[in-house]
């Protein structure tokens, strides 16, 4: 079975025979319509996927010819709609064998045309389909014939892909699907769904050239990778040229996020209509989709992709709803008691505390030990305050007896945070010490020597104890030391060798409530980390912000 480029001229030659025959018994307008249809048809390439663009309500026609040779001659046609449902059909146009044979070789004359009028060609529809599924027609030709494909979109402009092959012996452009192409859901969690599917025969035969790609979204399933790409583009996002092969972050748009880990590629397309997540997992046939939202319905599609041609086949899509987030456990706050809460920054879980008021006026105190914490307080279900807290923060609230307060805490960072919380109705007995206007430590550059450093910090009007500690560090430790410092930990967490001194001081005049200290016995050209702890009457320490100072190298 072969195809000859001589058939490029067939429509006009065949039209002369067919048209003369029709002209005898049909109006002139019909003849002109046939001429227009043939003239505007295109040749469909054999063994190659063709992209066809359709305008609304305007049919488009392609044709191909099967010559008389080794009969029967098999052929397959696969049509993939990339958006809306379309209508398409296959027509077989059979003419006199002698005419087709000579026309194929460009050998005809007027006498042959006259003969063809006595043996007119006949056209018959052998297949038609309407929908948006990928559809394949497998046919067998027993004689020379002209085949015409007609495509029509009645909803809007769209595009499709068409694949014709007459060589059924040399493998497949499209990867094969298993006999059971369904996707099984084998596990559902609050933020994860685990999927499994049967291996494609193509993966078992050509493992190095085939891989599986998943599509996750909240709207609906997609019947082809082509349809998915079209939907992503229509939502205002751009898709990399080859969905399954987009391994370079430079191909991504600003609204796309690529994650590559453990040989898995994830591309998250963000838009106002939601996100579409694309995940390529190699040849694994199980996958747990992470980072989903609780109590949300998701649609899952699996495509087996040929890496050499980028052709793909779709498994039967499925959907699942993640489990509802369990009600957060409530911890009861007791009047005057301090509790410390550690918050998971990676999972972004909310920690909830509850307090029932025994007085009309109460005060919440929050001391951020590490990182920044989001604090949200409601009274009887209504929000009274919500803000991010770092350092020490007080909230004085007024209400009624037996009002119920709910405190929700969450880390604002990806790393873990911790915070101390206290609620009290005894304002005259504060548990935390009175704080100065600033908790910063100042160093004096001009007073630095090779073996000493002078630092200063603010005090208060209240007689308090201040303890100074020092620690020798390296250049590459500065960032870690400053970021990991637990500002709720007291001097008891430090080594004895790091202690410099402790002293008491205060001043009624806040303008003069400043103290300085010169720390001696240091090494030249060395970095030191200095900390000051304020010890209140209750014994709860407040740690000033750490200060890093380097002694002079030469004096």
Automatic annotation (TrEMBL):
Output one GO MF annotation. heparin binding
* Protein name, UniProt field: Protein NDNF
Using the record, list the residue span of the signal peptide; answer none if the entry has no such feature: 1-23
- Gene3D superfamilies per the UniProt record, alphabetical: Immunoglobulins (2.60.40.10)
Question: What are the alphabetically sorted keywords of the record?
Answer: Glycoprotein, Neurogenesis, Repeat, Secreted, Signal
Domain Protein NDNF C-terminal, by residue range, is: 382-555
Write one Pfam family the protein is assigned to. NDNF
Can you give the residue ranges of the Neuron-derived neurotrophic factor N-terminal domain? 40-169
Location in or out of the cell? Secreted
Specify the Neuron-derived neurotrophic factor first Fn(III) domain's residue ranges: 193-322
Q: Name one GO biological process term.
A: nervous system development
Naming one, the record's GO cellular component terms include: extracellular region
């Amino acid at each position: 079975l072969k195809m000859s480029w001589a058939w490029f001229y067939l429509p006009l030659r065949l039209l002369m025979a067919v048209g003369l025959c029709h002209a005898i018994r049909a109006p002139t307008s019909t003849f002109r319509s046939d001429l227009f249809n043939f003239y505007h048809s295109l040749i469909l390439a054999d063994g190659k996927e063709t992209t066809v663009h359709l305008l609304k309500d305007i049919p488009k026609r392609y044709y191909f010819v099967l010559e008389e040779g080794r009969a029967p001659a098999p052929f397959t046609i696969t049509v993939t709609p990339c958006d809306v449902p379309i209508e398409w059909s296959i027509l077989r146009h059979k003419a006199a064998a002698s005419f087709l044979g000579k026309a194929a070789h460009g050998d005809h004359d007027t006498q042959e045309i006259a003969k063809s009028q006595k043996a007119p060609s006949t056209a018959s529809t052998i297949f038609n389909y309407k929908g948006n599924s990928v559809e394949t027609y497998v046919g067998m030709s027993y004689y020379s014939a002209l085949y015409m494909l007609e495509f029509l979109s009645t909803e809007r402009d769209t595009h499709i892909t068409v694949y014709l092959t007459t060589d059924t012996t040399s493998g497949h452009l499209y990867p094969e699907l298993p006999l059971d192409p369904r996707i099984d859901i084998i596990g559902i969690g609050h933020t994860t769904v685990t999927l499994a599917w049967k291996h494609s025969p193509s993966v078992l035969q050509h493992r190095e050239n085939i891989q599986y790609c998943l599509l996750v979204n909240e709207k609906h399933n997609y019947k082809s990778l082509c349809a998915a790409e079209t939907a992503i583009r229509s939502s205002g996002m751009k898709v990399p040229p080859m969905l399954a092969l987009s391994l370079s972050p430079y191909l991504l748009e600003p609204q796309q996020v690529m994650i590559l880990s453990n040989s898995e590629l994830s591309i998250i397309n963000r838009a106002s209509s939601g996100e579409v997540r694309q995940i390529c997992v190699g040849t694994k046939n199980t996958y747990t989709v992470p980072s989903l939202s609780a109590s949300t319905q998701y649609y899952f599609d699996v495509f087996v992709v040929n890496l050499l041609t980028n052709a793909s086949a779709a498994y039967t899509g499925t959907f699942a709803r993640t489990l509802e987030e369990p009600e957060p456990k409530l911890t009861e706050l007791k009047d005057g008691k301090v509790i410390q809460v550690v918050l998971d920054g990676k999972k972004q879980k909310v920690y909830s505390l509850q307090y029932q008021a025994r007085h009309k006026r109460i005060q919440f105190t929050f001391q951020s030990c590490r990182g920044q914490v989001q604090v949200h307080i409601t009274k009887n279900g209504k929000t009274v305050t919500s803000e991010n807290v770092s350092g020490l923060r007080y909230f004085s609230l007024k209400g009624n007896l037996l009002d119920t307060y709910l405190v929700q805490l969450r880390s604002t960072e990806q790393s873990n945070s911790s915070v101390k919380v206290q609620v009290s109705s005894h304002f005259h007995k504060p548990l935390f010490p009175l704080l100065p206007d600033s908790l910063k430590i100042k160093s004096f550059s001009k007073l630095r020597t090779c073996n000493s450093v002078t630092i200063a910090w603010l005090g208060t009007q209240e007689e308090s104890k201040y303890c100074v500690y020092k620690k020798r560090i390296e250049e590459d430790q500065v960032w870690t030391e400053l970021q990991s410092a637990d500002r709720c930990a007291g001097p008891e967490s430090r080594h004895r060798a790091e202690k410099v001194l402790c002293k008491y001081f205060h001043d009624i005049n806040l303008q003069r409530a400043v103290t300085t200290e010169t720390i001696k016995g240091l090494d030249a050209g060395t970095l030191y980390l200095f900390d000051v702890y304020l010890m209140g009457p209750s014994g709860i320490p407040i740690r000033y912000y750490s200060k890093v100072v380097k002694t002079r190298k030469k004096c």
